[in-house]
Amino acid sequence: MSLRNKIAIVGVGESDIGKVPNMTGLGLNAQAAKRALDDAGLKVTDIDGLLTAYSFTEPYFMLGSVMCEYLGLKPRYNASMVVGGASPAVMLKHAAEAIAAGHAETVLICAGENRASGQTRDQAVAALLAVGHPYFEQPYGPSIPGFYAMIAQRHMAEYGTTREHLAQVAVTARRHALLHPNAHMKKPLAMEDVLAAKPIADPLGMFDCCLLSDAGGAFIVTSAERARDLPSRPIYLLGIGEYHTHEHLLCAPSLTEFGASVSGQAAYAMAGLGPSDMDFAELYDCFTIVPLIELEELGFCKRGESGAFYADGKAAIGGELPVNTHGGMLSHAHAGAAGGLFGIVEAVRQLRGGLGPRQVDGAETALVHNEGGILSSHCTLILANQQR
Amino acid sequence: MADNLPPPTINADSAQYWEAARREKLVIRKCRACDALHFMPRAVCPSCWSHDLEWVEATGRGKIHSFTIIRRAPLPAFVDRVPYAVALIDLSEGPRMMANIVGENALNIRIGDEVEVTFERRGEGAVPQFKLLSA
C-alpha cells in the first residue's frame, strides 16, 4: 500500500528552546504539543493517537503512556519508539500506516528532553555513551563524537574531504540559525572559530558537535481527506522509506556507505521523484560529517563531492539545495529525538511559506532525513505543499 | 594506568572470549555450518543463524580501518588517559573490532597501519588492545 498523497502534516510546534530551567522534559513536550494543536486548529479531543520516543533525562518507563497521562489523553493508538535520532521520521511512517489503515485518525508525534537543565554536561556525555556497545566498545573509552570522528577520518582518507569542509557545515548551519527566532544559538560563528575550537575527538572540535538543549517538538498527522477541513495549509507526505543496517559502529557494514541510500531510494520511488526535484533538504546533523555523507547517500552529489558542495555555497539558503534552513542540531537545537523532529517542523514551515529572510524561494517539495545510532537506522521522507 | 578503567563484563555470549583474553589470546566465533567468522560473539551465526559455532584463535594481526584521538574523555575513568587513540581494526581473518592503540607512538597512527594484539590487565581479567607493528 503506497502512502503517497494519503497523509498530511497539519500542525507543528516547538517549545521554548535553549536553557529553559523552569520546564521539565515532559513540560517541553506539552508546550510543543499545545502549539502544534493550535497551529492545526484542532481540539484536544480530536487527538486519538500519540507516538513519542525516549528520554535520557527523566526516569520514565513506557514514555508513550506517560506522555498521554501527562497530557490527559486516552488514545486508541499509542507507543514509545526507540530508533534513536531516526525515531521522528519512523514514527511518522507508523502513524501514516495506522491512519491509512483506519486505526487512528489524528496522531500527535512529540519528542524532547531538558538536556541543558536536567543534567550536567558530564552526565549528558556519559549517558549518551549508552549508544556505544557496553562490552565491546565502551571498555575502550570511545565517545559519541569519537564514533563519528572515525567516520569522518575514513571519509577524509577515501575522498580527500578536508577539515575546512567539515567546518563549513557548522558555519552554514549557524548562518541559518541566526535567521530563526527560536534557535538556541544567537551569535555568529566564523570558520576560524570552528577550526580553533576545543578539540573533542580528531578531527572533530566542539563546533562540529551538536548542541545539548532544552527543547521539545511536536507535529500532528491526519488523513489528506481530514486535512482539507482544517484551517492550516496541509503539507502532504509523498514518499517515505527506512532501512537499518547495524547499531554499533563496530558492526557497520561500511564507514562511508550507509542505509540512507536505501531509505532514500524507497522514499523517491514512492514519490515518483528524484533528488533534482527537491527544493531544499533537512538532514540529520548531529556532527558535521553527517550531512556531508547524507548529501552523497541521498543522491544530491557524487561520492566525495559533498565537501565541495558546502564550500561552494550550494547548501546555503539561496544556493542550489539549501540544507538545514533552521540551523539543524548544530545551531538550532538538539535534545534527544527532538533534533530530527525539528527538521520535519522546519520543512513544513518552509513549504507553507512566508518565513522572511529564511524562506527558500519557490519551496514546494522537500526531503527530510533522520538517522539514529551511529548512522545505523535511517528514515527518509519527502513532503510537498500539494498532492502530486 | 588501567587501574580505574572498566573491567570486562562477562556474560553467556562472551565468557570464553574474556577467558581467552585473560590468558592473552584473541578468539573469534566461527560457524561450523557456513564457515563465516564473526566478532561480537552471539548465540547464533549472524550469516545463517546456525547454533553450531566454535571459537578459533585469531593471529592477532590486523590493519587500522579508521581511528580517532579522543581529547575529551566521555567518562571520569578515562580522564587520566587523554589523549588516547580508539580504532576500528580489520583483523587479518576479516572481522572488525574496536580497541585502543597503545604504545609510545600510538597517537601517530594512520589508516592502513598494521597492528598486532596486546593485552591490558583490567581487574581480574584483560582486554585486547593493539600496538603498531611498524614501531
Question: What do you see in this structure?
Answer:
The complex is a heterodimer of chains A (388) and B (135). Chain A has two domains: 7-118 and 213-235, Thiolase/Chalcone synthase (Peroxisomal Thiolase, Chain A, domain 1, 3-Layer(aba) Sandwich), CATH 3.40.47.10; 141-209 and 239-384, Peroxisomal Thiolase, Chain A, domain 1. Chain A has helices at residues 25-40, 63-71, 87-100, 121-128, 144-159, 163-177, 191-196, 224-227, 260-271, 289-297, 306-311, 328-331, 338-352; strands spanning 7-14, 49-52, 77-80, 106-114, 199-201, 204-205, 214-223, 235-244, 280-282, 365-372, 377-384. The mean pLDDT of chain A is 97. Chain A has 13 helices and eleven strands. The two termini of chain A are 17 Å apart. In chain A, 35% of the residues lie in helices and 18% in strands. By secondary structure, chain A is an alpha/beta fold. With 135 residues, chain B is mostly beta strands. Chain B has a single domain (15-132), classed as OB fold (Dihydrolipoamide Acetyltransferase, E2P), CATH 2.40.50. In chain B, 6% of the residues lie in helices and 40% in strands. In chain B, a hairpin with a 5-residue loop joins strand 1 and strand 2. The longest helix of chain B has 8 residues, at 15-22. The two termini of chain B are 21 Å apart. The interface between A and B is large, with 37 and 36 residues.
